[in-house]
Amino acid sequence: MLYDKLKSYSQSGVYPFHMPGHKRHFYNEKLPYELDITEIDGFDNLQNPSGCIKAVEDKAARLYDVKKAFISVNGSTGGVLAAVRSMTKRGDHVLVARNCHASVYHAIELLGLKPEYILPEYYEKCDLYAWVSAKQIENKLEEYGDISLVILTSPTYEGVCSDIKAIAKVCRNNGAKLFIDEAHGAHFPFSESFPQEAVKAGADAAVVSLHKTLPSMTQTALLLTDSEELSQKLKSNLAFFQTSSPSYILMASVEMCLDYIETNKSEFEIYTENLNRFYNSAESLSRLKLLNKYDFDFGFDLGKLVITTKNTNLSGVELAKILRKKYKLEIEMSSLNYVIAMTSVCDNRSGFDRLIKALLEIDSNCLTAKEISSPCFKPSVPEQSFSPCRAENFSSSTIKLDYAENKASLEYIWAYPPGIPLIVPGEIISCETILLIKNLINGGVSVYSSQNNLKNNLCVSVVEFD
Length: 466
Prior knowledge:
Mean pLDDT: 91
Shape: globular
Distance between the termini: 51 Å
Helix content: 25-40%
Largest sheet: 7 strands, mixed
Radius of gyration: 22 Å
Number of strands: 21
């Protein structure tokens, strides 16, 4: 049934403005069972590569211009978990951007870390988190004094970058390591039109998801570092968080992706030309708006087409539905006030033309509104009653969301995509957070909780917190 659904979708005529980055160009036949093997003689071993798999990792290191690159077949999630464990000791104090992916929060919980959160700048043009400044980081490091690791997301899901070079310098001066979740920036080194890759900008380590913006199969990523000392820890911890029976098909797709990058450099020039042409055409939009590099201080990924519906009579969710149903364009993500169309070097000119034609037509038919149809509440960092790793020590009760105010959550709540928690175990649920969650749900955004019962109940501590 699953294979049939996949096959039917592949033949539906829907254009994929979403990941994976290969855009279904590379794999359009039945699943290659004849290539699916285990660790047999002559095929190397991902946990301790010395042959053909090592050659793939060495090629990755060369193309990304770093000293070490490690394959992750558990996506960037595996890389995040491995990196955080490699760069901290249990109980360490860490500084975390609040817009980090759920995997960062899971690492904090698993490793018993003490988190301090930092709010990125809030971009009100379409209600999203943007960059973190070096000054914000410096102030926090000086305030606490014992931060061992700083964890940031750059680029964000929407393509916004922070000034990693300046932040890396601040971290070094204050004795903290810097890890960057760069999952959405795997394509950065291959065109001057994109921001600088994080390790080259001074980060101690970074993870990139090949499958998001490059032609590699879903679940493939790389963990990058220039530190020889850190390399062995990363290698050991990747084995801790990855399967001991990795897919050779996935690893082969990493190799094919790297081969493509190496032999098709001109394709990235064509890609950036298509993007520039799209942005020029989008200047004709009068109500819908396309974010661009001039909107942000420290860099923006032009490959992320972020179209805001704010101050129109459409929500982002409604725009996504129109693109899907009327134009057969499936976008990556829709929020209350914007959508994201994810592009890659494998997108073709006709795909870009289909999207801009659809947007111009929708734009001509939508109305300007004095207020957005789905008002958004600016997220904030909730009060933390206890660290996530202590949640299991508290007796729980399940209650309706409406009655959860001033109670400590014992589960995660997040909107997906992109999987950034709104509430983390141990945090106090405020009236504002309840309103935000309800607003997202009512606006058609998918909101989940880790115990999968958010629509009916929420698991909270029986201890009252004022």
